[in-house]
Amino acid sequence: MHSSNHLIKFADDTTVVGLISKNDEPAYREEVQQLPAWCKANNLSLNVNKTKKMVVDFRRAQSGRSPLFIDKSSVEIVKSTKFFGVHLAENLTWSLNTSSISKKGSSNTSTSCGG
Question: Who has the most CB within 10 Å: 5, 15, 72, 107?
């Protein structure tokens, strides 16, 4: 594993986090290409249809997002994802997570009378 990448495994979820600086993506892309073999070696199955890519990019001049492929299948690029119960947005603001918690809280409020 390249030092700019981290593999996070929890229960049945695996996350690859890559720090890409100066548009140098090969280490990250190589890590992702090795993911199917890593999963197989660790008796895990990789569902590419459930695999997502989220990019956090604070550069002033952002370049286009290159597609990512795993075993010839395109990985969906998303603007937000849920990670360990926290809703993360590509701009790293808390508004998405806050609204999700707020909605969940308001849907759980019900009044009942016990007898």
Answer: 5
Is pTM, for the whole model, over 0.90?
no
Those residues whose C-beta lies under 8 Å from the C-beta of residue 40, and which sit 6 or more positions away, are none
pLDDT in tens, the chain (115 residues): 788 899 898 888 889 999 888 778 899 999 999 999 999 999 989 999 999 999 998 888 777 778 999 999 999 999 999 999 999 999 999 999 999 998 888 877 655 555 5
Instruction: Write out the H or E segment, with its range, that includes residue 87.
Output: strand 86-89
> How far is 34 from 87, CA to CA, in rounded Å?
27
Number of Cβ within 10 Å of residue 68's Cβ equals 19
- What is the C-alpha separation between 44 and 37, in angstroms, rounded? 10
Residue 10: exposure state from Cβ atoms within 10 A (0-12, 13-18, ≥19): exposed
| 103 contact partners, CB below 8 Å, separation of at least 6 | none
Domain ranges of the chain: 5-55+68-107
